[in-house]
Design brief:
heterodimer; A: 499 residues; alpha/beta; six-stranded parallel sheet; 22 helices; 6 strands; 62% helix; B: 98 residues; mainly alpha; 0% strand
Chain lengths: 499, 98
C-alpha cells in the first residue's frame, strides 16, 4: 500500500508547508470577511453569501489536497451525509422556526469542536502539534526514571488551546441544545432556578480551570475527559435559568461561543482561515448580544445570571385593579384604517406565533391601494432572535424599504393616525420610560401613545407580555383593543376593507 | 508560524470583525447569524485532517472516526447554513417602482 505511506508522511510536509497552502487559507479567511461585509445592505448580501461559499470551498479543497488522499471515500461519504441533511433541513424549515434552527446549528459547531479537539489529542502527530524538541530531550531522562519511553509529547501551548477549544465547544453544545429545546417549545421557556446556582457555576468553572492546568502538566486523558464533562454540565446550567424573552441574547451569545471554539482550534492547527473566521464569528455574536442587551436595557451579566420573567405573577398582582378599556371590532378597525393617512404597524413575536405576516401584508396592500401610507416598525428585540421580524416580513413579500428600525421611526408617531400593534406588548409599554420600579424600566420603546389611534391586537386582556408588566396603553382613550387571534383578526379586517 | 504571529492575526481579525459586524444592517441580523454559523464550520478543516490521517495505534483509529463524525456535523452546518442564508436573502426585495 502506497497511499497510507503518503498520508503518513503528510505531517512532515506540514512542518514546511508549501506557500500556496497558507495563501489558500488566507484567501478563505478574506472571503469570509467579504461575506459579512456583504450583509451591510440587502442589495449586496447575496453576493456576500456566495463569497462565503467560495471561502468554504477553498478551505475544504485545500485541506483535502494536502491531507485527504488516503481516506477520500469515507470523507466524501461523510460530507454527503452531512451536506444532504443540512440542505434538506435548510429547504424545509419554516421562517418562524429560524431561532431554533440556528440554535441547533450552533450545537453542531460546538460538538464538532469537541470531536476535533479529542481527535487532535488522540492523534497529535496528524495535527503536527508534537513537541519534537521536548520529545527528544526528555527521552533519556524519562527512560532512565521510569524505564519506559515517554508518551508522545504534545506541545504545551497546543494542550492549552486544545483544552480551551474542547471546553468552549462543549459549553456551546449543551447550551445550544437547551436553547433549542426552549425555542422549539419542547421545554418550558420559563427559567429554571436552582438554589445556589451561582455558587455551583463558579465551582464548576474553577474546576474546569484546575483540570486544564492539570491537563497541561500531565496530558492525562482523565483530565481532558473531566474538562469535557464539566463543560457540558456548565453549558446546561448556564442556559436553563434564562427565560424565553432573553433568548435573543442567548442565541447571540452561543453564536459568539461557537466562533471562539473555532478560533481555539485554529490556534491548535495554526490555521489562518480558522482563526480569522473564529474571530469574526466571535465578535459578531458578542456585538449582537450587546445590541440585544442594550435594546432591553439589561446588562449582559444580569441576562447571564438569568431568572428574568420568573417573577411575572408577583408583578401582575399589584396592578389588578379594574380599569376601563375599549374593545373594537374588525369593522371599526377597518373603518379607521381606511380613513387614516399614516399607519405604522408594530409586529411582535405574537405575529410570528399566529403566522399572521402574510395576511398582514395583504392588509397593508389593501390600505396602500386606498392611498394610505403604511410603514412597519421593528424593535431590536422583537421575536426570538436578532432580525427575526425582518425575515418574517421579507418572507411575506414586504419590501425592506418599508421596514424601519426603532430609532429611525420613533419620531413619526406624532404624525401617525393609527399605530397598529400586532403581537407586541413590552416594546410599546410607556412604563419603560416613566415607571422606575418596572422591570422593563429604561428599555427603549415605541412612543405609540403619541399616535391619534392605537389598535392593539391581543388574544385576551389577561396575558401581559413576557415581562409580566401591565401596559398603560391598553387603557388610553385613543386605544382600541382588538381581542382575537392575530391572524383571524387581520383576516376579518381585510374582509371589511374590501367591502 | 510562531505563536505571536498567530495571535496578531487573531487580534487583527477581531478588530475587522468588530467594524464589519457593526456595519451590518439590523434588518439582516438573522441572515448574519445563519452565515456566521456556516462559516464557523470552517472547523471542518480540523475534522478533515483527523479523518484523513491514518496513523498507527488505537488512538489514531478512534481519532479518525471522531474526525469523520465531526465532518458530518460540520457539513450539516456548512450546507444548511449557506442554503438557509441564501433562502432568506432571496426574500429581501425592494419596493416595486411602478
Amino acid at each position: 500500500m502506497v497511499l497510507p505511506l503518503l498520508a503518513e508522511g503528510a505531517h512532515i510536509l506540514e512542518i514546511t508547508p508549501s506557500p500556496w497552502v497558507a495563501f489558500a487559507y488566507l484567501a478563505a479567511g478574506v472571503l469570509f470577511i467579504l461575506a459579512l461585509r456583504g450583509l451591510s445592505s440587502p442589495g449586496t448580501s447575496r453576493a456576500g453569501n456566495r463569497y462565503g461559499m467560495a471561502g468554504m470551498t477553498i478551505a475544504i479543497v485545500t485541506t483535502l489536497l494536502t491531507h485527504g488522499i488516503a481516506s477520500l471515500p469515507e470523507i466524501v461519504v461523510a460530507l454527503a451525509i452531512g451536506g444532504g441533511i443540512g440542505f434538506i433541513t435548510a429547504r424545509r424549515i419554516q421562517m418562524t422556526d429560524m431561532p431554533q434552527l440556528v440554535a441547533a446549528f450552533h450545537s453542531l459547531v460546538g460538538l464538532a469542536a469537541v470531536l476535533v479537539g479529542w481527535a487532535a489529542y488522540l492523534n497529535p502527530d496528524a495535527f503536527g502539534i508534537l513537541d519534537m524538541a521536548a520529545y527528544l530531550t526528555d527521552t533519556l531522562a524519562h527512560a532512565s526514571s521510569t524505564g519506559a519511553p515517554p508518551p508522545t509529547q504534545i506541545h504545551p501551548q497546543s494542550l492549552i488551546e486544545m483544552a480551551l477549544g474542547i471546553a468552549i465547544g462543549a459549553i456551546t453544545f449543551s447550551g445550544s441544545v437547551i436553547a433549542f429545546l426552549k425555542l422549539a417549545g419542547k421545554m418550558s421557556g420559563a427559567p429554571i432556578i436552582l438554589p445556589a446556582r451561582h455558587a455551583i457555576n463558579i465551582v464548576i468553572l474553577l474546576a474546569i480551570a484546575f483540570f486544564i492546568f492539570g491537563f497541561v502538566m500531565s496530558q492525562s486523558m482523565l483530565d481532558i475527559a473531566l474538562i469535557t464533562a464539566l463543560a457540558f454540565i456548565i453549558g446546561f446550567l448556564l442556559i436553563i435559568p434564562i427565560g424565553g424573552a432573553d433568548m435573543p441574547v442567548v442565541v447571540s451569545m452561543l453564536n459568539s461561543y461557537s466562533g471562539w471554539a473555532a478560533a481555539a482550534m485554529g490556534f491548535t492547527l495554526h490555521n489562518t482561515a480558522m482563526i480569522i473566521t473564529g474571530a469574526l464569528v466571535g465578535s459578531s455574536g458578542a456585538i449582537l448580544s450587546y445590541i440585544m442587551c442594550k435594546a432591553m436595557n439589561r446588562s449582559f451579566i444580569s441576562v447571564i445570571a438569568g431568572g428574568f420573567g420568573a417573577t411575572a405573577d408577583a408583578g401582575g398582582g399589584a396592578a389588578k385593579e379594574q380599569r376601563p378599556w375599549k374593545r373594537g371590532s374588525a369593522e371599526d378597525a377597518a373603518f379607521l384604517l381606511k380613513e387614516a393617512e399614516n399607519v405604522i404597524i408594530i409586529p411582535g413575536y405574537g405575529m410570528a406565533v399566529a403566522q399572521a405576516q402574510h395576511v398582514l401584508r395583504e392588509m397593508a396592500d389593501t390600505l396602500k391601494k386606498e392611498g394610505v401610507n403604511v410603514k412597519y416598525a421593528i424593535h431590536p428585540v422583537a421575536g426570538r432572535m436578532p432580525g427575526h421580524m425582518n425575515v418574517l416580513l421579507a418572507e411575506a413579500n414586504v419590501p425592506y424599504d418599508e421596514v424601519f428600525e426603532l430609532e429611525d421611526i420613533n419620531g413619526e408617531f406624532a404624525q401617525c393616525d393609527v399605530a397598529f400593534i400586532i403581537g407586541a406588548n413590552d416594546v410599546v409599554n410607556p412604563a419603560a420610560r416613566t415607571d422606575k420600579s418596572s422591570p422593563i424600566y429604561g428599555m427603549p420603546v415605541f412612543d405609540v401613545e403619541k399616535a391619534k389611534t392605537v389598535m392593539f391586537i391581543k388574544r385576551s386582556m389577561s396575558g401581559v407580555g413576557y415581562s409580566g408588566v401591565d401596559n398603560d396603553v391598553f387603557y388610553m382613550d385613543q386605544t382600541m383593543m382588538l381581542l382575537a387571534d392575530a391572524k383571524k383578526m387581520v383576516e376579518e379586517i381585510v374582509k371589511s376593507l374590501q367591502h | 508560524m510562531d505563536f505571536i504571529s498567530i495571535l496578531s492575526i487573531f487580534v487583527m481579525a477581531c478588530f475587522v470583525g468588530y467594524y464589519v459586524v457593526w456595519s451590518v444592517t439590523p434588518a439582516l441580523h438573522t441572515p448574519l447569524m445563519a452565515v456566521t454559523n456556516a462559516i464557523s464550520s470552517v472547523i471542518v478543516v480540523g475534522a478533515l485532517i483527523a479523518a484523513a490521517a491514518s496513523g498507527i495505534g488505537a488512538g489514531a483509529g478512534v481519532s479518525k472516526w471522531l474526525g469523520l463524525g465531526a465532518v458530518v456535523l460540520a457539513s450539516i452546518n456548512i450546507f444548511g447554513g449557506f442554503a438557509v442564508t441564501a433562502r432568506m436573502l432571496a426574500m429581501y426585495k425592494k419596493k416595486e417602482r411602478k
